Amino acid sequence: MSYDTITYQAEAGVAVLTLNRPDVMNALSSQMRTEMLAAVRAAGAEARVLVITGAGRAFCSGQDLADAGAALDMEATLRDEYEPLLRAIYDCPVPVIAAVNGAAAGAGANLALAADVVIAAEQASFIQAFTRIGLIPDAGGTYWLPRQIGFARAMGACLFAEKVTARQAADWGMIWEAVADDGFAAHWQARAAQLANGPTAAYRGVKQALRASAANDLDAQLALEARLQGECGTSHDFREGVAAFMAKRAPQFQGR
């Protein structure tokens, strides 16, 4: 598939999806959402890690309000365009890193929070900007935020629509880490390479187990752990990991 609003490349197990509308701070148009969905699905089939980042000075400024103007049917757009994209990111069979290079606002912030790991440059920020234009947070924001930063901080961030810096987001537990601007690209590339060379099936199990824990009681979670660990215990990567440990060498995982 050819892309006009994003770039996509996959090499050495790492797929990089770059939002590429820097003139509008990578605002999300209908075409961009369609192209992103195709790229996320492609990454799940051909890569071992997916990185989502932005071109220019912003990660993503959220919904492109000029895309449909006052005629925008928000309920239909969220249901038919945002939900499939967010589900594709959330359910991606390989780890997903959001490399947040700059401002992430509105749906752009919540798009980043759908990833498994968020790495942000110190210049980046997260803004639940919705109430500034008379809306509520969407694109999963009311789901991610209370779970990541607690009810009180989530409510304040949504009501006041104030900027949360990358460092503050890391301190709150909203994101994994904030790193220096000048080393940002090299850092997320190294993180992506680490995951691409890791035990992909085990990573998939980690995602499944952690996400199920909020709804499970202890017995159900222990049973799920046992089942997933049983699957991992029969894998090539487990055998290779043990052999490498015993031989005091680096493992050569195959991702299965």
Could you walk me through the main structural features you see in this protein, from its secondary elements to its overall organization?
The chain is an alpha/beta fold and 256 residues long. The chain has 2 domains: 191 residues, 2-enoyl-CoA Hydratase, Chain A, domain 1; 48 residues, Lyase 2-enoyl-coa Hydratase, Chain  A, domain 2, CATH 1.10.12. Helix content is 48%, strand content 16%. It is built from 10 helices and 10 strands. The strands form 2 sheets. It has a 6-stranded mixed sheet with strand order 1-2-3-5-7-10, sandwiched between helices. It has a 4-stranded mixed sheet with strand order 4-6-8-9. β1 and β2 form a beta hairpin. α1 runs parallel beside α2 and α8 packs antiparallel against α9. The chain is globular, with a radius of gyration of 19 Å. The chain starts with 5 loop residues before the first strand and ends in a 9-residue tail after the last helix. The mean pLDDT is 95. This is Enoyl-CoA hydratase/isomerase family protein. It holds the Pfam family ECH_1. It comes from Fertoeibacter niger. One of its GO terms (molecular function) is catalytic activity. Belongs to the enoyl-CoA hydratase/isomerase family.
